[in-house]
Amino acid sequence: MGEAYLGEFEQIVLLAVVRLGDKAYGVPVRREIEQRGGRGTTVGALYSTLDRLEAKGFVHSWFADPTPQRGGRSKRYFRPTPAGLQALAHSKSVLDRMWKGVRLKGGADA
Amino acid sequence: MHNVPKVAEWILRRLVPGREGEIIAGDLREEFDARGGGRSWYWMQALSCVAVRLSPNRLAPSGLGRDFHFALRMLRRNPGYALTAMLCLALGIGVNTTVYTLVDELFFKKLPVPDAGRVVAVDRAGEDMTCSYRDYQEIARRTVGAGRKIFSGLAAFQDQPTSLDTDGVSRTVMAEAVTANFASALGLQAQVGRWFVPEEEARGAEPVAVLSDGAWARRFGRRPDVIGQRVRIETQWYRVVGVAPAGFISASPPHASEVWVPLASQPYARELLAMPGERDRPKVRLIGRLAPGVQPRAAESEVRAVDAQVWREYPRDKPTPGRLLVAVASGTGPAVRPVAFHIAALLIIVTGIVLLIACVNVANLLLSRSAVRRREMAVRQALGASRWRLARQTLAESLTLAAGGVVFGLMFAIWTNRLLVRSMPAIPHLGFVTLDMTLNWRVMVCAMVAAFASALLFSLSPAVEQSQPDLTPALKSEAGGLRRMRQRDIYVVAQVALSLVLLIAATLLVRALRHAGDIDPGFAMDHRLTARIYVSEPEYTPETGRLFFARVLEQARATPGVLAATLSYAIPLNFADSGCTATDLIAKPKRGGSDLIVPGYFDAMRIPLVAGRDFAPSDLAGSPKVAIVNQTLAARYWPGESAVGKSLWLGCDPKRPRAKAEVVGVARDAKYGSLDEDPKPFVYSALGQDWVGFMAVTVHTAGPPAAFAEPLRSLLRGLDANLRIYEMAPLEEMTAQSLWQVRWEASLLGSLGLLAIVLAAVGLYGVVAYTVAQRTREIGVRMAMGAQTSDVLWMVLGRGLRLTAIGIAIGLALSALVTRFLGSFLYGLSPLDGVSFAAAASFWIVTAMVASYWPAKRAARVDPVVALRWE
Question: Which of B224, B272, B374, B787 could form a disulfide with B791 if both were Cys (CB 3.0 to 4.6 A apart)?
Fold first, then answer.
């Protein structure tokens, strides 16, 4: 297995987790993707991606104590692992290299 | 504060269990509150989690997907093997599916009416009919509407064969006489016109009828102007007011009703309903729609209570009847169920055996495949694949084969379903049976369950075999071990044994048919043509009817080529009637067979009179009543005495006076209802003293009887252009109908037996061929050492025959155990009939010779040099 490559949605989810720091649990992650990424996502898709990232060792998760405004249910917080950060950096450099010198007709350039 | 949708949350927590579900539910609750509601949004989110959770990738244990992927690839690379296995399975599954369809049709299919799960039949345990019409009215009054509301509608009906005439064509058909609320209780709409209205039940109302879709198509070519047309049922004309919806054939399928009429407008029922004291007739069956919220179980206990109450309020001098049963209306009524059950059980067993044989074939194929792949498997195991992993791989392959088998099998079943429908004998009392043999999901699920159970069964053997611990011989490419050969042999033996059982059963039935042909029916049926005619009111009175019959006989007898002509109400072995007799006025009457005949009947039918005289033309209504009895009746009532001159009291009905008759003759016993019946008491009365307009004309012809059909028809039409003529056929054909069930079962068993033999022969061929391939080197050595071609031939042939012999021995023993279940269909033939057993066994030996001959010949052609160089 060479350098792990992240899918587009995986990158977005992982970036959202990175951006949110220690406030990264389900609700803010989804909001971040919606507001900054400009795309909606379902809870199902989000959690299946987070589970996959965790299985690959790119994020680490833990459970926080239940809070009353959630009907007494606990939260699951996420934090990127060093391998996750490395994978993100790798994906970005791949994309950067690929974009270098590319001009799209009538479109924005990199 | 909004509340989250409870159902969505419940589903989420149910399907996404544990902490994961809790976290998601928490997230959703938080967001739901933050965005201030949005139930559909919540539902979407919850369902997205469920969808992810239930996706196949997620569900399957890791690697199972890969197993199937691998299995598919294996099958694609060996299409011949895969196709053979799938086709074997498809044959087995196909015939099984047909039987499942039949069973579903006979026992489980609900009526084609809206919300059929709420429509229930109310039957009485142990009886064909539920209750009398008057009791129905009482029960309906207390269970529908006010007070205890059990049914939202309760209808009564009776179904009976009758005759329907349209445009001069008369035919015996099934008709249902129903109450006016029949259609509304069932939720039936008419596709043309309407159903009955309550006024049409009133006394003096014009008789009206609703035609079935089939009757509309056959008799009126689907013309819309059928409304207002007139059809005649027995003695009465009815105006057509509607056509039933296409899928609806009757309240008790698979019996197909040709026409529906209001029960109260039927002449016989009308007469009974007009009698003030008559509580017990006419008898009806009940069907109703449960009131909302009432379950069948609850309805049953309520209805039983009501029934008991009615019985207490109107006591009768009869034992208390059986309990009422309430069940969702589906399939055959209580009258047909025993016959249907017998046929279904037989077919399930037989097709089960065919499927078993097919499974063994596939197991054999898998086994030889696994022999080829022994090295591969051993290598994988040596590399660390667990035994469970390898077994799972085999299972995946079997399941893939089974899936293919189901697909082909269902396609095959469409064809066999049609074949079964066509194989139903075309005779009147079965002609009313309309089987709708289309595949539905219940049947398909059954077929799939059968297929997957088979897959488990046949994947068992290679899995067991593969999991044997010793890898060394396999890695050394050593040819098959003793153990596998034994396993394969057991399979062949089992196949031979099972298919032999089917073959013996089929042979027994065929022999029984022959045997039945040898039974002396006690009357002559060759060179006789029989036609059923109906002379009824209002065109005829008994007097003019008798005159008409006399002219029919006179003209028929005068026709060249006619040796004799006679009339009878019953047709032996086809249409029986029964009556009661007693030796004095107060003795309990005993039921027996009866017939109404004319003078000369015994002569024309070659039934000898052993004592006394025949009826005479002078035995008329005004003269003393006379009767002729058969030997059995005479011996039972007057043992050791002459019956002639004794008095006999005729009649079953305790309310009507019995008629006293003097016995004037004793006729020899004959077969009346079926060929295998025990001698039963029988009494003949004279048409001159008793009247029925529904008579069978039988003419004894010099030439072939069928050739006289047209002359007889024109003779009858010449006497009365509007005469109603029903079935007309040589007597031999009519009597043969009593054998239909045996004939039908013999042909079904025969074709299934043949299928089983083909499958088993393929299996045998495979095993012998495989042996030859395995032993090529050995054969080469033997030939190099001087063995002759014939030696090798016999060595291989001998192996096939040895296996067959063991299989035959077991099959014979097995057959001896099971053939007694055919008992009643064997017409006195012993279930252990030696000829059948021997014939079936020798047939198998020949098949085995053929199946092993080809591989043997190939073995004999082995070139020793080539075979030895092989290493």
Answer: B787
